[in-house]
Automatic annotation (TrEMBL):
Pfam families: DUF3027 (PF11228). Residues 130-140, 311-320 have a biased composition (Basic and acidic residues). Residues 321-334 have a biased composition (Acidic residues). The lineage of its organism: Bacteria, Bacillati, Actinomycetota, Actinomycetes, Bifidobacteriales. This is DUF3027 domain-containing protein. Residues 107-156, 311-334 are annotated as: Disordered. InterPro entries: DUF3027.
């Protein structure tokens, strides 16, 4: 819409009035702001109920050569004083584990902060080059690595360098073996130990959990219903899962706090439990002694008691007389 010989403020007000449902919903001019290249933003106060702090925004374009004003757009926009909904939260962050069924698939993001790259076996390399082998993360979030110089490996243990590699790629020497060092490290034995650790903790997977993720998992398990604060723990008479014969230990750092219950009669069977958790099915709890005394409980339905109900006289029960009359007509009774 192009207007000539019209005040731009009046033009902007007309546009706001044409958009509003009622003329009382457009208030006074709040201000005008140049956006650039001849574009101006006119703001009017909003008087709509429930839209306190909002403003009518009308964008105009001024063609100075033609001395005309053109309406670009109009809208109702919030200010800092407006009541607005909370920030949008992604649906994956709003979900709870209880919201998912067995057929739902969440998927894992490629940059999931709970995972880190797993162990990659070393490949054959030319002589005089380093072979970097990475094992599991330690508890401080660093990655234990062993770098072995090919020449040093041929000479036994000379030249072996053991260091910690953090996430940023920085390296910290832990021990560098010298030929006359009293502490001897066999490079081949170290490699075998590393392979054993990889097999034991299944670190050959493409991704493994980070130290932060394992810490969050331990906190969630420990504070849950299979931790020390559950009702079953308070009724376990001091018998903790740590001393139960049905508890299967876990490998790794989580094994210092948790195990898996394998008692078929326990409500925690097949679940991860804390070592200070407990239930009434501990392997060291003896069964109750059988009593030779019979304790009769109150029956749910007493079929031995007879209730005597006084009935009305026969003459006052016409249904009885009717039944007797029908039996007499059929000849079933004399």
């Amino acid at each position: 819409m192009v207007q000539e010989d019209l005040d731009p403020e009046e033009l902007a007000r007309r546009v706001a009035l044409s958009v509003a449902a009622d003329s009382d919903e457009v208030g006074e001019l709040v201000g005008r702001t140049p956006i650039g290249d001849g574009v101006w933003d006119y703001r009017f106060a909003s008087a709509i109920k429930g839209y306190e702090g909002w403003q009518w925004s009308v964008t105009l374009y001024c063609d100075e050569d033609a001395d005309t004003w053109t309406v670009d757009e109009s809208s109702l926009v919030p200010t800092d004083a407006a009541l607005q909904p909370p920030a949008w939260v992604p649906w994956k962050d709003r979900l709870l584990p209880s919201d998912l069924s067995v057929t739902d698939v969440m998927g894992t993001d490629p940059d999931d902060s709970r995972l880190t790259a797993g162990y990659k076996p070393a490949q054959a390399v030319p002589q005089n080059s380093e072979v970097e082998r990475t094992s599991e993360e330690n508890k401080e979030g660093q990655i234990a690595s062993a770098s072995v110089d090919a020449d040093g490996a041929d000479q036994g243990t000379d030249g072996a360098v053991f260091r910690l590699v953090d996430r940023s790629g920085g390296e910290k020497d832990v021990h560098k073996q010298e030929p006359n060092d009293q502490v001897s490290f066999d490079a081949q034995t170290s490699a075998a130990d590393l392979d054993e650790a990889v097999d034991r903790f299944a670190l050959s997977r493409r991704h493994v959990m980070t130290a932060e993720a394992r810490t969050a998992t331990a906190k969630r398990w420990y504070e849950g219903q299979h931790g020390p604060k559950s009702l079953s723990t308070r009724t376990a008479k001091g018998k903790a899962c740590e001393t139960c014969g049905f508890m299967i230990p876990l490998a790794g750092d989580l094994g210092t706090m948790f195990g898996v219950c394998a008692n078929r009669w326990s409500p925690d069977d097949g679940r991860v439990v804390s070592l200070d958790h407990g239930c009434g099915e501990h392997s060291e709890i003896e069964p109750q002694e059988e009593s030779h005394l019979w304790v009769q409980s109150q029956p749910a339905y007493d079929d031995l008691h007879i209730d005597v109900v006084r009935q009305k006289p026969r003459e006052e029960r016409p249904e009885v007389e009717l039944m007797e009359q029908m039996e007499s007509e059929d000849g079933s009774e004399d």
